[in-house]
Structures are given as structure tokens and as C-alpha cells.
Amino acid sequence: MCGIVGAVAQRDVVEILVEGLRRLEYRGYDSAGVAIIDGDQLNRVRRVGKVSELSNAIAETPVLGGTGIAHTRWATHGEPNEKNAHPHVSGENIAVVHNGIIENHGPLRKRLQEEGYVFASDTDTEVIAHLIELELKTSDSLLEAVQKTRKQLEGAYGTVVIDRRDPSRMVVARSGSPLVVGLGIGENFIASDQLALLPVTQNFMYLEEGDVAEITRQTVRIVDINDKEVTREAKVSDVTHDAGDKGPFKHFMMKEIHEQPEAITNSLEGRITETGVVTETFGAGANELLSGIEHVQIVACGTSYNSGMVARYWFEEIAGVTCQVEIASEYRYRTSVVPKNALFITLSQSGETADTLAALTKAKTQGYASTLSICNVPGSSLVRESDLAFMMRAGVEIGVASSKAFTVQLVGLMLLVLSIAKHRGVDEAIIANIVKGLRELPGQIQQSLSLEPVIEALAEDFADKHHALFLGRGSQYPIAMEGALKLKEISYIHAEAYAAGELKHGPLALIDSDMPVIVVAPNNDLLEKLSSNMEEVRARGGQLYVFADKNAHFEAGEGLKLIELDHIDDALAPILYTIPLQLLSYYVAIIKGTDVDQPRNLAKSVTVE
Ligand code: AGP
């Protein structure tokens, strides 16, 4: 989704702004722009396409100045063209960038047009610029004008405003779309994601819902939703500056696939003992809050939803608590019944997914015993809004297609399952055995990454395919779902996942030599059943690609290509079997020549509904 960067400094800020936008490219966008105050001029450059187009344009016609704002736009209102790219202006003075959606932009536009304002774009954002200009006529400061404007806006937004007549400050407002202030020495910054500002500062202050802030080179003045002056705590980030670099890899996604052993090791550090889980890992009071839990409701979107689906098997089988999993955009709009002693869990890499946040807001009014978030971004909205939180420590994930966040999320979920299992008196030996398995997991994942050349060769088979079917049973069914999601996201091949037992209830009709069928087959109680499903495919001329346990002793042959993995205990097998499916989708995408890190039409963090 859209990205925001802004700066108030003594030095020229254009390079800082453009580098910030580059670091936000992963979020997905279709145009980019900057507006900078140079003396008494407000200069604006906007381009459709990549940030590199914008930076080429700036190289040709340099823009100078110490106060500026920049934006990458992901179109919601109005086509992706230069006219609709941000920043938007009102006259010669006000420039605005904005993330999110202004829901009442229609009536506001009409009113402003009646006041004589002429609109230059089809966006909802432009109403903000004109409204601020209008409010300035009866206000003493830009801050006051933005406060008055905020009260008239409906929807979710993060916005930054500069005024040509006063380059000493920018004013920002947060309502439903994240904004973080970057604190420098004699200069200050704003961004929608701290990653954009890491080259200039490690010191951050997260704005809260409803905050409006006036930022100068030396000061940050914040007023909250009730217009009361407040302070927000500044925190030093431990995310490193080079988190946005690809290292030796061609794509962030491949880098992130390879980072999984380290990410899981980091995530486990200090959180497990020889035989169990340190429950305080989930936050102060976790022991008490989790002790009486009898039911779990998980809500998430996309890949995070798939990890919740795996956890459903774990919660019921290992901890003996009932568990439901639901897509956030469904949960938020339906009437649901909350059982007694129920825990509401949100799963999210970003912590800013609009539907998941809205579901949490709703859940807080529904009588859950507690809310818990498993999330990768410290300080994100979900983390701040939940009673308990498990910080994933997967490191920054930039590829739009989630990889390491999924497996680390599963690790966090398993720790939660074991914590609840312990409270419910589950045999300690069972818990200790899974903890041992978790400790061995990074090594096993490292080993599975050595399958890369085999999978790269296998991907050739998919080059001319338009569809693919993924099959799994039990807790591997959601892994088939995740495999299908990855393939469609980055290679644009239509892929579907089925619980293998469902095959003969419909999808079997699709099987022919043109439909590759990918099967996830660890050695477990369901193996025999799964083998029968595979035979159903083979008998109809389908081509099987089977990811199987070495001990399962499948034989490759006509209609069956075999990729063998080392044996792993069933509980953690879903995590391991994810890796070859990630590699497969990556190499198919490479063959298809798609944009692996920024697939078309998708954004990393979906902050609008
Ligand atoms: C994953 O590959 C996706 N791009 C997407 O489904 C993602 O998982 C979803 O948007 C949820 O994001 P979150 O985990 O940041 O909430």
C-alpha cells in the first residue's frame, strides 16, 4: 500500500526522501512523488511507475530544500497516473501526502467546489489539501488547521502536510494508518514505516490513533484525539540499517526464504527451556491470562490465516482446547457467539492489516477473556491494541509474498499451544518432545534448503501450465493452501488447494496431463489415505509432484516425481514442508519472468479495507 516519508532539516532532504521511498517499495505502489519547499517555492515532481523513474526525473531537474514530503501511491480513488500521484496541493502553498481512504470525500469535494476550490485530480486525498487551506483562513497555525480538518474527515488515514509559507514545520495526523516520527539531531522525520528512516535515525516515536503532531527541526509537539497535549515515548529500534538490502540474493523473497533457520533461532531465544516454554514470552500477566483458556478464536488474512489454520489442528490435538479460525474480513461483519473463557488471537506479519485490526476492535467489545497478537512489527497497531503479544523476531520481511513470517508465526503459535497445554495438565513429556523438535527445526530447515537445485529443475515443468492443484491432509492441508497461495501470488498461475479426501467430491474432474498435482506427504497416520488419493490422480493421467518423507518409501516413476525430505516428527512437519513449496513458487515465478518481490496488484501491508 502507499508509503509516506517526510523531513524537516537544515540539509537538502531530497535524497533522504527518495531513499525512504525506495525502502518502502516493497509495500507495492504504482506512482511516486515528492514536494519540497525551496526558499519561497513549493516544487513538486511526480511520476507513474517505479521510484527509479522519479529519481531519474529529479536527477534531470534537481529539487532542493530542507522541508519536504514524499509518497508512493497504490491507487484506490482514481487511475494510477501522474495527475493522481501524491503529493497533492492546494494553490501554491499547501502540499499533502496521504495513506488510506477518506470515505466522505464526495460531500467534502462538493462543498469545497462550492467554496471555489478547483480540483486537479480524481483522488480523495485532494480534499485534505483544500480543506486545510480553507481552515487556515480562520486558524492561528497549520497545527490548528489540521486539527480542525481531522474532525471533518471520515475513514482511515495517515497524512503529512507542509506549507510553503512556513518551511520550519510539517504537521502530521494519524487515524487508522500508521505513522512514526524519526528523531534526528537538529532534524526530524516522519514515515509510514520505520524502515524508510533507518539510514537517518534509529530513534523512533510511534503516534497513536487520533494524534496530530507538529514537527520542527528541534521539536515534536503532539495533541491527542481530545486536543490534549501529550508525549509519546521514544524508542531505539534494533532493526538494522541493511535490513532493506538483498545481500547475495537476486530477490528479497529468496533472501527471506534462506533466513528462516536464523529467524526461527532468534524467535526461540530465551523463550524455551530444556523441557518447556517460558509463558511470560507472551507478555506481563500471560501466565494468569492463559491459565483458564478453554477456547481459541484466531482471526487473520492471507498467509497469516493459513498459519492459523495449521494451529487449529495443534490447539485441539495437543492442548485440547477448541479452536476456530476465520478470515478477518468475514469475522468483522458477522454476528458471532463468544464461548466462555475464550482467547481472541490475531496473526499478522505487519500488525497493520486493516481487516485484522477492525476484527480486534470488534472482539474487544465481545467479551473475550483476553486478546493476543502474534506479530512481527514491534509497536504496530495490533501489538499496542492487544492484551498480550508474541513478537516474532523474524526480521524485516520485504517480499510481498510472505515466507519467513509464515514459518516463524507457526513457531509462535506452537509455543502458545504448548503454554496452554501445560496449564491444562497435558503430559510434560509430550511438551518436552515438541520443544526438543523446535530446537532441531532450524537445522532441518537448513537441510531442506539444499533441495533448491532439484526444485529449480522441477519448476521447468510448470512453465507452460495455467493451473495447479495442491493436496494435503490434516495439518498439511493448510500447507497445501499456503503453497497454492504462494504460487498464484508470484507466478500468476491459478492454483487451488484441497484436503486430499475431497478430491473425489469434485476436483478430480479437473485431472488430466495438463494439471500438475502437488502433494505434501509426511510420514504420518494419514499417509495410507493420502496414497490412495494419489492413485486416484495417477489413474486419470495426472502428473504428481510429491514432497514426501524419506521413510515413506514412495517410488518415482511414470506420473510421479518425488522430492524426499528428512524425517521430522508430525507435530512440526507443517513448518518443514512449507520450505520446498516456497522454493517451487519462487523458481516457477523466475521462469515466468514475473516481478517476484512486488507481484502485480498486490501490496505488502493491506492498510485499507
Ligand atoms: C502473503 O504472501 C500475502 N501477501 C498476504 O496474504 C498477507 O499474508 C496478508 O495480507 C496478511 O498480512 P499481515 O500478515 O501483515 O496481516
Automatic annotation (TrEMBL):
It is found in: Cytoplasm. Residues 285-426, 458-599 form the SIS domain. The active site is at C2, K604. GO terms for molecular function: glutamine-fructose-6-phosphate transaminase (isomerizing) activity. The keyword Transferase applies. Pfam families: GATase_6 (PF13522), SIS (PF01380). It is an enzyme of class 2 (transferase). Keywords: Aminotransferase, Cytoplasm, Glutamine amidotransferase, Repeat, Transferase. The keyword Amino-acid biosynthesis does not apply. Residues 2-218 form the Glutamine amidotransferase type-2 domain. It catalyses: D-fructose 6-phosphate + L-glutamine = D-glucosamine 6-phosphate + L-glutamate. Gene3D superfamilies: Glucose-6-phosphate isomerase like protein, domain 1, Glutamine Phosphoribosylpyrophosphate, subunit 1, domain 1. Its EC number is 2.6.1.16. Catalyzes the first step in hexosamine metabolism, converting fructose-6P into glucosamine-6P using glutamine as a nitrogen source. Homodimer. This is Glutamine--fructose-6-phosphate aminotransferase [isomerizing]. The lineage of its organism: Bacteria, Pseudomonadati, Pseudomonadota, Gammaproteobacteria, Oceanospirillales.
